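Document type: protein sequence-to-structure record

Subject area: structural biology

Format: plain text, a pair of labelled lines:
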Amino acid sequence: MYAITQSKLQVTLMSLQKTILLTIIIAAIMIVSAMAGAPEYMQANLKVGQAFEIKGDWVPDTGFVASDLEELPKPRRPKLRGIIQSIDREKETVTMYGMTIEIKDKTEFLDDLARGAGFNSLKVGERVEISCKVEKDGEWEARRIKTRGVKNSNKIKGTLTRVSVDGKAPDTVEIHGLIIILKRSTDFDDPSSHLKQMEKRILGDLSKSSASDLSSGTRFGDNVVAEAQYRQNIRTTSSYDLGSSRFG
Protein backbone atom coordinates (compact mmCIF):
# COMPACT_ATOMS: atom_id res chain seq x y z
CA MET A 1 0.00 0.00 0.00
CA TYR A 2 1.38 3.41 -0.94
CA ALA A 3 0.52 6.82 0.46
CA ILE A 4 1.42 10.09 -1.32
CA THR A 5 2.06 13.09 0.92
CA GLN A 6 3.24 16.63 0.26
CA SER A 7 6.39 17.31 2.28
CA LYS A 8 9.07 19.95 2.61
CA LEU A 9 12.68 18.98 2.04
CA GLN A 10 15.13 21.65 3.11
CA VAL A 11 18.62 21.36 1.66
CA THR A 12 21.11 23.64 3.38
CA LEU A 13 24.48 24.32 1.78
CA MET A 14 26.99 25.68 4.28
CA SER A 15 30.53 26.92 3.69
CA LEU A 16 32.99 29.44 5.02
CA GLN A 17 31.92 32.05 2.47
CA LYS A 18 28.12 31.96 2.50
CA THR A 19 25.09 29.90 3.37
CA ILE A 20 22.50 28.95 0.79
CA LEU A 21 19.12 27.64 1.88
CA LEU A 22 16.98 25.88 -0.66
CA THR A 23 13.44 24.94 0.30
CA ILE A 24 11.98 22.50 -2.16
CA ILE A 25 8.41 21.25 -2.18
CA ILE A 26 8.49 17.61 -3.18
CA ALA A 27 6.01 14.80 -3.46
CA ALA A 28 7.39 12.17 -1.08
CA ILE A 29 6.35 8.62 -1.71
CA MET A 30 6.15 6.81 1.60
CA ILE A 31 5.78 3.06 1.72
CA VAL A 32 3.37 1.74 4.30
CA SER A 33 3.81 -2.00 4.60
CA ALA A 34 2.98 -4.80 6.94
CA MET A 35 5.90 -3.55 9.04
CA ALA A 36 3.96 -0.40 9.95
CA GLY A 37 4.39 0.30 13.63
CA ALA A 38 7.65 -1.67 13.81
CA PRO A 39 10.88 0.14 14.76
CA GLU A 40 12.45 1.89 11.78
CA TYR A 41 15.63 -0.19 12.02
CA MET A 42 13.63 -3.27 11.00
CA GLN A 43 13.69 -1.85 7.47
CA ALA A 44 17.43 -2.64 7.36
CA ASN A 45 16.77 -6.42 7.40
CA LEU A 46 19.71 -6.78 9.77
CA LYS A 47 21.87 -9.86 9.30
CA VAL A 48 25.39 -11.10 10.02
CA GLY A 49 27.89 -9.83 7.45
CA GLN A 50 26.28 -6.43 6.89
CA ALA A 51 28.46 -3.40 7.60
CA PHE A 52 27.08 -0.28 9.26
CA GLU A 53 28.01 3.17 10.45
CA ILE A 54 26.30 3.51 13.82
CA LYS A 55 25.87 6.79 15.67
CA GLY A 56 24.86 6.90 19.31
CA ASP A 57 26.07 7.30 22.87
CA TRP A 58 27.59 5.19 25.61
CA VAL A 59 25.18 4.84 28.53
CA PRO A 60 26.81 3.62 31.78
CA ASP A 61 25.50 0.25 33.01
CA THR A 62 23.65 -0.13 29.69
CA GLY A 63 26.04 -0.02 26.74
CA PHE A 64 26.25 1.72 23.39
CA VAL A 65 22.76 2.87 22.45
CA ALA A 66 22.33 3.50 18.72
CA SER A 67 20.52 6.62 17.52
CA ASP A 68 21.14 6.12 13.81
CA LEU A 69 22.12 3.26 11.47
CA GLU A 70 23.48 3.66 7.96
CA GLU A 71 24.41 0.62 5.92
CA LEU A 72 27.86 0.62 4.30
CA PRO A 73 28.51 -0.87 0.86
CA LYS A 74 30.86 -3.66 1.96
CA PRO A 75 32.23 -5.42 5.08
CA ARG A 76 34.94 -3.57 6.98
CA ARG A 77 37.10 -3.70 10.09
CA PRO A 78 35.88 -1.92 13.24
CA LYS A 79 36.49 1.78 13.74
CA LEU A 80 35.50 3.55 16.95
CA ARG A 81 35.14 7.26 17.69
CA GLY A 82 34.61 8.34 21.27
CA ILE A 83 36.18 8.77 24.69
CA ILE A 84 38.84 6.54 26.21
CA GLN A 85 37.17 5.00 29.26
CA SER A 86 40.24 3.47 30.89
CA ILE A 87 43.92 2.74 30.27
CA ASP A 88 46.05 -0.16 31.52
CA ARG A 89 49.63 1.15 31.40
CA GLU A 90 51.13 -2.23 32.26
CA LYS A 91 49.27 -4.21 29.60
CA GLU A 92 49.25 -1.29 27.16
CA THR A 93 45.54 -1.40 26.45
CA VAL A 94 42.73 1.14 26.29
CA THR A 95 39.01 0.59 26.77
CA MET A 96 36.36 2.16 24.54
CA TYR A 97 32.67 1.24 24.64
CA GLY A 98 33.54 -1.60 27.00
CA MET A 99 36.03 -3.18 24.58
CA THR A 100 39.68 -3.69 25.52
CA ILE A 101 41.96 -2.65 22.66
CA GLU A 102 45.65 -3.55 22.58
CA ILE A 103 48.17 -0.91 21.53
CA LYS A 104 51.08 -2.51 19.67
CA ASP A 105 54.48 -1.17 18.64
CA LYS A 106 53.18 -1.17 15.06
CA THR A 107 50.09 0.88 15.97
CA GLU A 108 50.23 4.06 13.90
CA PHE A 109 49.54 7.42 15.52
CA LEU A 110 48.25 9.64 12.72
CA ASP A 111 48.88 13.07 14.26
CA ASP A 112 52.32 14.63 13.99
CA LEU A 113 52.40 15.73 17.63
CA ALA A 114 51.57 12.20 18.76
CA ARG A 115 54.33 10.50 16.82
CA GLY A 116 57.10 9.44 19.13
CA ALA A 117 54.87 9.73 22.19
CA GLY A 118 52.65 6.79 21.24
CA PHE A 119 50.77 4.95 23.95
CA ASN A 120 52.12 7.15 26.76
CA SER A 121 50.46 10.22 25.23
CA LEU A 122 46.94 8.80 25.62
CA LYS A 123 44.72 9.97 28.50
CA VAL A 124 41.51 8.76 30.08
CA GLY A 125 38.63 10.94 28.87
CA GLU A 126 40.44 11.91 25.66
CA ARG A 127 38.43 11.82 22.44
CA VAL A 128 40.07 9.55 19.88
CA GLU A 129 39.29 7.64 16.71
CA ILE A 130 40.71 4.12 16.61
CA SER A 131 40.82 1.86 13.56
CA CYS A 132 41.03 -1.73 14.75
CA LYS A 133 41.47 -5.27 13.60
CA VAL A 134 40.15 -8.30 15.45
CA GLU A 135 42.32 -11.40 15.80
CA LYS A 136 40.99 -14.94 15.47
CA ASP A 137 40.92 -15.26 19.27
CA GLY A 138 38.65 -12.21 19.47
CA GLU A 139 41.31 -9.80 20.73
CA TRP A 140 40.99 -6.22 19.46
CA GLU A 141 44.17 -4.53 18.24
CA ALA A 142 44.61 -0.85 17.32
CA ARG A 143 45.89 -0.31 13.80
CA ARG A 144 45.68 3.48 13.69
CA ILE A 145 44.84 6.13 16.29
CA LYS A 146 43.75 9.70 15.61
CA THR A 147 43.93 12.10 18.56
CA ARG A 148 43.58 15.56 17.02
CA GLY A 149 40.56 17.12 15.37
CA VAL A 150 38.27 14.27 16.46
CA LYS A 151 34.59 15.15 16.00
CA ASN A 152 32.29 15.34 19.03
CA SER A 153 29.85 12.73 17.75
CA ASN A 154 30.22 9.12 18.91
CA LYS A 155 30.33 6.53 16.17
CA ILE A 156 31.05 2.88 15.46
CA LYS A 157 31.77 1.38 12.05
CA GLY A 158 32.07 -2.33 11.45
CA THR A 159 30.58 -5.60 10.25
CA LEU A 160 27.84 -7.33 12.23
CA THR A 161 28.90 -10.65 13.75
CA ARG A 162 25.71 -11.37 15.68
CA VAL A 163 22.12 -10.19 15.32
CA SER A 164 19.41 -10.60 17.96
CA VAL A 165 16.44 -8.72 16.52
CA ASP A 166 12.72 -9.44 16.60
CA GLY A 167 11.31 -5.92 16.36
CA LYS A 168 10.46 -5.75 20.04
CA ALA A 169 12.88 -3.03 21.13
CA PRO A 170 15.32 -3.01 22.70
CA ASP A 171 17.08 -5.34 20.26
CA THR A 172 20.83 -5.89 19.98
CA VAL A 173 23.50 -6.46 17.36
CA GLU A 174 27.21 -7.14 17.89
CA ILE A 175 30.47 -6.30 16.19
CA HIS A 176 33.03 -8.82 17.45
CA GLY A 177 31.66 -8.72 20.98
CA LEU A 178 30.79 -5.02 21.07
CA ILE A 179 27.09 -4.98 21.90
CA ILE A 180 24.97 -2.24 20.32
CA ILE A 181 21.48 -1.59 21.63
CA LEU A 182 18.68 -0.66 19.23
CA LYS A 183 15.77 1.32 20.66
CA ARG A 184 12.43 2.09 19.06
CA SER A 185 13.76 5.59 18.35
CA THR A 186 16.82 4.27 16.46
CA ASP A 187 16.68 5.63 12.89
CA PHE A 188 17.69 3.75 9.76
CA ASP A 189 19.29 5.96 7.12
CA ASP A 190 18.45 4.07 3.94
CA PRO A 191 20.75 5.11 1.04
CA SER A 192 17.95 4.19 -1.38
CA SER A 193 15.37 6.35 0.42
CA HIS A 194 13.54 9.22 -1.29
CA LEU A 195 15.62 11.74 0.71
CA LYS A 196 18.92 10.30 -0.51
CA GLN A 197 17.67 10.04 -4.08
CA MET A 198 16.38 13.63 -3.97
CA GLU A 199 19.73 14.84 -2.62
CA LYS A 200 21.49 13.04 -5.46
CA ARG A 201 19.23 14.61 -8.08
CA ILE A 202 19.52 18.11 -6.60
CA LEU A 203 23.22 18.18 -5.76
CA GLY A 204 24.74 15.58 -8.04
CA ASP A 205 28.34 14.70 -7.27
CA LEU A 206 29.81 18.04 -6.24
CA SER A 207 33.22 16.47 -5.64
CA LYS A 208 33.73 16.01 -9.41
CA SER A 209 35.53 18.62 -11.45
CA SER A 210 32.64 18.48 -13.91
CA ALA A 211 30.09 19.46 -11.25
CA SER A 212 28.01 22.56 -11.88
CA ASP A 213 27.37 25.23 -9.25
CA LEU A 214 23.86 25.73 -7.89
CA SER A 215 24.44 29.51 -7.59
CA SER A 216 24.87 30.27 -11.32
CA GLY A 217 28.64 30.17 -11.50
CA THR A 218 29.48 31.59 -8.06
CA ARG A 219 31.88 29.49 -6.10
CA PHE A 220 30.62 29.26 -2.52
CA GLY A 221 33.50 27.51 -0.77
CA ASP A 222 35.77 24.47 -0.71
CA ASN A 223 33.74 22.51 1.81
CA VAL A 224 29.98 22.02 1.71
CA VAL A 225 27.63 20.22 4.06
CA ALA A 226 24.18 19.29 2.77
CA GLU A 227 21.47 18.67 5.34
CA ALA A 228 18.11 17.22 4.34
CA GLN A 229 15.29 17.89 6.80
CA TYR A 230 12.02 15.99 6.87
CA ARG A 231 9.28 17.07 9.27
CA GLN A 232 11.75 19.38 11.05
CA ASN A 233 14.17 16.52 11.73
CA ILE A 234 17.55 16.30 10.05
CA ARG A 235 17.42 12.91 8.34
CA THR A 236 20.65 12.95 6.36
CA THR A 237 23.87 14.94 6.32
CA SER A 238 26.52 14.70 3.60
CA SER A 239 29.88 16.46 3.25
CA TYR A 240 31.48 17.45 -0.06
CA ASP A 241 35.06 18.50 -0.75
CA LEU A 242 35.00 21.05 -3.56
CA GLY A 243 38.71 21.78 -3.48
CA SER A 244 39.24 20.17 -6.87
CA SER A 245 35.99 21.39 -8.45
CA ARG A 246 35.94 23.98 -11.23
CA PHE A 247 33.18 26.54 -11.21
CA GLY A 248 32.62 29.38 -13.65
The helical segments are 194-203. The radius of gyration is 21 Å. The longest strand covers residues 2-14.
